[in-house]
Structures are given as C-alpha cells and as structure tokens.
Specification:
209 residues; alpha/beta; four-stranded parallel beta sheet; three-stranded parallel beta sheet; 7 strands; globular
Length: 209
C-alpha cells in the first residue's frame, strides 16, 4: 500500500516523469499517424515543451498551435520566459486585448499570433441602467480558485469593510469546486456579509450589481 501511494502521489504525477511520459506517447503516436496539426491549451508549461520536443524529433512534423487564454492574471507570469523556451508555430488568441497582453508583457512576436475569437460569449453584454441604492452590490468573478482565498484573507485584515454590502460570488464553474466551496464556507462562517453564490448568467449578474 505504501509503495502504491508513494508511486501514485510522488512519482507518476510529478516532473519530470510526466513530461517524459507525454514526450514518448506523442513521439510514438506520430510514428503511427498522419497528424497534420496539434492544437493544445497554451500556458508555456513543461508538458507543452514535451509535446513540442516530440514534434521536433519526428519525421512527420505537424503544425503546432497553442490556444491562449482570453485574459491573464499574475498566475501567467510564467509567460515571461527565457528566449529559448520552445514555442508552437502559432499562438491563437481570442481577440485584440489578449494578443496585446502577450505582445507587450510576454514579448511574443505579433507574427506568431493569430486571432481565432471565442464562441463562449458571442453576444455583447448590454449596459444596464438601474436605480441607485444605498446598499453597495459587489460581483466577485473568480478566475482561479485561490482568488477567493485571497479575498477572504483580505477580509480578515479588514473584517468590517463589507458592512452593509451585498456580495455575489461567481465561482469558476469548470474546476476547483471543492477548494472554492471550502473557502466560501469559511467566508460565511467568519464574516458578517450578505452573501450569495447561486448560478445565473453573466448578463443577469451585471443587471443585479
């Protein structure tokens, strides 16, 4: 049991073994296929470097495209990399703002980027006119799970800062549910705040706040 747990948690899912696994898996697959293009989420991580190394060592060199995030936080400062970091042939972005960030902050040449757009939100969020209220309404948009932890830690330093306010937390829906829910439980327990985290469309949440 110890050996199994040790292998599972401290070896197989750790660098550099997982990168070696990905490298050999991609390399072997390219030998047996006629893949022309590889598209993967772009974060400039070591796993991506393993993919690019495998492509570079193959006879059939497919085109590589990294699909970049629509927006970036401090979690993506890893983009400020060394110049010799392996890169895909193209980096696809969701729009001009995302491309500007990659160009200005990450120093990625514009000729290596192409705008693909995004089908996730394909309608414009309309401006909402509503009557003013004495009670401030705050909409907190969570991009990465630890952002709600940072917010809660901030409240510990200033516990009364949200007195009389309404808070609506829009959780990241696709991952980190356990981590977010644990922090939210702490927020509800330790702080007196008019709080909600029920689901709704972004348009409805903007109209609320």
């Amino acid at each position: 049991l110890f050996a199994s747990e040790f292998y599972t948690h401290l070896i197989i899912n750790r660098s550099p073994l997982r990168e070696l696994v990905v490298y050999h898996a991609i390399k072997n697959h390219l030998k047996e296929s006629q893949v022309e293009t590889i598209i993967y989420p772009y974060e400039d991580k070591s796993l991506e470097h393993a993919i690019l190394k495998a492509v570079g060592s193959s006879i059939n060199k497919p085109k590589t495209i990294g699909l970049a995030h629509a927006c970036h936080s401090t979690a993506y400062l890893c983009y400020l990399r060394e110049a010799n970091s392996p890169q895909p042939d193209l980096i696809a972005t969701t729009g001009e703002k995302a491309q500007d960030w990659l160009y200005q902050r990450a120093c990625i040449p514009q000729k290596k980027m192409v705008t693909w757009g995004s089908k996730r939100y394909h309608s414009i969020i309309k401006k909402v006119d509503r009557s003013t209220s004495n009670q401030l309404r705050i909409l907190l948009l969570i991009g990465i799970y630890y952002e709600i932890s940072m917010f809660t830690n901030f409240l510990k330093q200033a516990p009364n800062v949200l007195g009389g306010c309404q808070l609506w937390v829009r959780k990241k829906p696709h991952s980190w549910q356990t981590e977010q829910n644990e922090t939210i439980a702490s927020l509800q327990k330790d702080h007196t705040v008019n709080y909600r985290d029920d689901g709704a469309s972004l348009q409805e949440q903007f109209e609320w706040c």
